Amino acid sequence: MSLSPASARTIEQNRFHLQDTAGNPVKPSPTRTVVAMPAYNEEGYIAKTIMGARQYADIVLVVDDGSKDDTVPIARALGALVVQHEVNRGYGGALQTIFNTARKIGADELVIIDSDGQHDPRDIESLLRKLREGNDVVIGSRFIKGASGDIPAYRKVGMKVLDTATQYASDLNITDSQSGFRAYGMQAIQTIQLGGNDMSAGSEILVQIGAHNLKVAEVPIRIRYDIENTSSQNPLVHGLSVLNAIIKLVSCRKPIWFFGMPGLLLTISGVFVGFMAFSDYYITARFPFVFSMVSALTLIMGMLLIASGLILNSLVEIVNAPKESRSAPHLGQEFSPSHTGAGEDQFDKVAEDHVSGHHCLHDLEDLSEY
Q: Which residue has the higher pLDDT, 334 or 345?
């Protein structure tokens, strides 16, 4: 990689002093690490975040989501690779650009951190160390032993609701599904394909991770909540929108459970109420209109839900079958962690231009020159 001496020294400091079983220093293999951050009007804190991230990264990537302040000039001045959205596309849109860019430049490791100052860049080291232990994804958790930060009580309640829903949707046993501080290995970078632009993208990623059986770990992180204007949305509105998106994900991924189980309960209830209606008619010889109507309606709704669940489950299997047959690396083939020579050249070229100052992209397609 053709970098300046200062940049080379920074990269050399990234590798965390690896040793073999005898305690002898081991020369690490070259690993291309990208630390990325979505940014929207973050001129007050992005400089500190970039400066903190640089010592752990070969490339610091900033995806500017239509900022109106000096976020972009500051990021460019500090040597970050900047990809700009002409309009605000939301958190999910920024993550889409981050993953697409990481794939285009051939990143081996991708760390995503908030640019608003809530995350401590020093925690990048612990995320990368855990990732290099053989995990595909490492999540910085605010709720495991060693984490620090005074999280408001109302946020804890909301996060637990979203954690429970995400765990059900993804089948992952994690403590902090809404953490935006994560590290991804090469297999995860190639696997994750986001479709939404909203704040539920973090949960969508976890659902995909669970579906592809990627190995996930968590490490404690430091978090700050004493910073103003870290979110453009009301927390309640944000939480409800994420929950709504998770419910949609569950309905698509587990239609039998989502539709079939309520349908089964309604059907059983309809049978029970019908039995009560029959008993009432047998004893009084009068037609129990209310019980009969309730029984009929619940039976119809229950059977419709069961049928919907079965039909949707068949459609999901049909839609997913072609994806599996294409044998993408993350869906069945043995995944090779090596890059082709072209991929190495591509990353090195981006890194070289990134250091030399040619590092502002108005659109992801600008990377095609590499």
A: 345
Rounded CA-CA distance 105/91 in Å is 21
Amino acid in the structure at residue 258: F
Which pLDDT does position 36 carry in this prediction? Answer: 96
Q: Can you give the pLDDT at residue 77?
A: 94
Residues 148 and 296 in one domain: no
> Which residue type is seen at 106?
G
Give the number of other Cβ atoms within 10 Å of residue 303's Cβ. 15
pLDDT band at residue 236 under the 50/70/90 scheme: confident
Q: Establish if 333 belongs to a structural domain.
A: no
Here the tokens at position 122 are 């020093």
Place of tokens 């590798």: 15
CATH number for the domain including 46? 3.90.550.10
* 283 CA to centre of own chain: 60
Number of neighbours of residue 346 by Cβ within 10 angstroms: 18
- Tell me the pairing of strands 137-141 and 182-184: antiparallel
Could you report the per-residue pLDDT of 190-206, keeping only the tens digit for each?
Answer: 999 987 666 678 888 99
Give the number of other Cβ atoms within 10 Å of residue 48's Cβ: 13
Higher pLDDT, residue 141 or 11:
141
Does residue 6 register a pLDDT over 50?
no
Tell me: do 96 and 228 sit in the same domain.
yes
Read off the pLDDT band of 335 (50, 70, 90). Answer: very low
Beta-strand relationship, 109-112 and 33-39: parallel
**Which range of residues forms the domain containing residue 224?**
5-252+340-369
CA distance 122 to 109: 17
- Give the number of domains in the chain: 2
CA distance 135 to 185: 7
How many Cα atoms occupy the beta-carbon half-sphere of 202 within 13 Å? 29
Answer yes or no: do 83 and 155 share one domain.
Answer: yes
Query: What is the secondary structure of 206-237 as a DSSP string?
Result: HHHHHHTT--EEEEE-BB----TT--SS-HHH
Query: Sign of the CA dihedral 124, 126, 132, 136?
Result: negative
